[in-house]
Write a structure and sequence with these properties.
Number of domains: 2
Shape: globular
Low-confidence stretches: none
Radius of gyration: 19 Å
CATH class of the largest domain: Alpha Beta
Number of strands: 14
Distance between the termini: 28 Å
Bound molecules: NADP nicotinamide-adenine-dinucleotide phosphate
Largest sheet: 6 strands, mixed
Helix content: 25-40%
Oligomer: single chain
């Protein structure tokens, strides 16, 4: 039986236990899955014990970078971005499955990215993963971020996109909200952005009117204000629920040294949703 956990500042409401338990059971593996909420000031003293307590664990806000000094190595996106969401204790290896979860969410929603223009709002941890996956998939990617230092830092780090400090008045096929604006205390709001010409506006019809698909990484609420506006304009909308599930699926494949399969992941997601409606 695998002993697993998710570690974050406040993971008391996390969906990780139910998702991982569900996925692993379908893969024929029993597990225990605990939530470990750690105040940031205590993380350094508590991190070491995670490796002896759990076979593997997931890491979330705000410890995706803080865990790295405790690891022997990081792989793939975790190495590129310096952010880890999955740890295997025996090898002390860190992985990041967010980008793979995002790419699979788009694929399974039927959103073709090759040759499409994409606007990513926000260049934080998730924004940079999404920008890279869109660029890897052949999209022409622009990233808007209000913090210029962060924007150009990410640009130097991964490149492959146009860094925007103002959003041009042109259309993008896919618009992705990676700012987190629209959840918690910003429910009912969309990100406020600088438009070309110096106007500061909330994201609305101006940006979403010309797109084909609007994607929000937020999954609570299920329909953010960003997605509500896009839906009211007749656009395809996708929230972050599938990404969350798929990043868990990829993490479980790492735990079990199993080759991920897009069709299997989709089937599991549909079954999981059915059981959770
Ligand atoms: P983060 O590192 O805090 O990044 C958010 C970025 O958006 C920051 O660069 C922030 O800049 C920027 N931002 C905030 N308000 C903005 C605005 N009005 N205009 C432009 N940029 C703005 O957070 P994260 O870890 O990337 O997460 C972002 C969102 O993705 C959250 O909602 C999170 O829950 C979600 N997420 C979902 C999944 C999933 O599986 N569905 C996975 C990962 C993340 P400032 O620092 O200047 O505020």
């Amino acid at each position: 039986m695998l002993k697993l956990a998710v570690v974050g500042k406040d993971v008391s409401q996390s969906q990780s236990p139910s998702m991982h338990t569900f996925i692993l059971a379908k893969m024929g593996v029993r597990c225990s899955y605990e939530t470990v909420s750690v105040p940031p000031a205590q993380f350094l003293e508590r991190a070491e014990s995670l490796f002896s307590c759990y076979d593997a664990f997931n890491v979330t806000i705000p410890f995706k970078g803080e865990i790295i000094p405790f690891l022997k190595r990081t792989e793939g996106d975790a190495r590129i971005f310096g952010a880890v969401n999955t740890v295997v204790s025996a090898t002390r290896t860190g992985y990041n499955t967010d980008g793979e979860g995002f790419a699979l969410m788009l694929q399974n929603a039927g959103i073709e990215v090759k040759g499409k223009t994409a606007l990513v709002l926000g260049a934080g941890g998730a924004g940079r993963s999404c920008a890279k996956k869109l660029a890897d998939g052949g999209a022409l990617v622009s990233v808007y971020e209000r913090d210029e230092e962060r924007l150009f830092g990410v640009y130097r780090e991964i490149g492959g996109f146009s860094p925007l400090t103002e959003i041009p008045r042109e259309t993008f096929d896919i618009v992705v909200n990676c700012t987190g604006i629209g959840m918690h205390d910003t429910v009912g709001k969309t990100p406020v952005v600088s438009m070309e010409g110096g106007m500061i506006e909330p994201v609305g019809e101006q940006i979403l009117g010309g797109c084909k698909a609007a994607v929000d990484l937020i999954y609570v609420p299920a329909q953010s204000e960003f997605l509500r506006i896009a839906a009211s304009l007749g656009k395809q909308t996708v929230n972050g629920a599938a990404m969350l599930f798929y990043q868990a699926y990829y993490a479980d494949c790492i735990y079990l040294k199993r080759t991920p399969d897009a069709a299997e992941a989709k089937q599991l997601y549909l079954a999981y949703q059915e059981g959770n409606v």
